[in-house]
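User: Before I run my own analysis I want an independent prediction to cross-check against. Here's the chain; please return only the structure tokens and, at the end, one sentence I can use as a sanity check.
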Amino acid sequence: MNSTTAAASPPLIAHPFATTFVAWSSVAFGIISLGVIGHKAFVDFSKLRLGCLAMGALIMCVDILNTLRIGSLISETNWATIRATLTILFVDLMMAITLNVGQRFYIKGEHVNSLYKISIAATVMTNVMTVISIILQNLLAVIKLGSVFDGISRLMWPVTVAFAYWYAFHPVINMKSGIEKRPSAVVAIGVW
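Assistant: Structure tokens:
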């Protein structure tokens, strides 16, 4: 929760019209972008494009919720719960996309390594912290402790995604030797 406002109070904004205009412009741009991504995903289908489309839809949800929050059309408690839920979905989807892309850079059978396991473990920990924060803040009304878990999960998700990227691009970064044993995609990306 925002420490400067009560749960039922609206957020303080300096220029209501300008802020609202910019926020809704962001929503409009997001809808256009989502349409372009969706068109490409359906015309030339791939799992990566479908994942990007789903990520775009999640980001649009957050964008709309943030815009509604400016006008106090959604309470801060509901906003925080929905944001936390969308964060879980975002992290899980980002992990699935990144790990899927990363598997292509490994020799068949070598893609499950310690970085892969750390990425999965970090994702599970982030999800657990977020769920605990939702339960504490909403079901048990323990706001302060729930905020601690919420803060931990907000700090953990970028680290989780960083581990996934490390896993995905480790073969490209670590191309010192053994190029002949690497898949051609690794060599191509490494050269690029």
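Sanity check: The longest helix spans residues 143-173.
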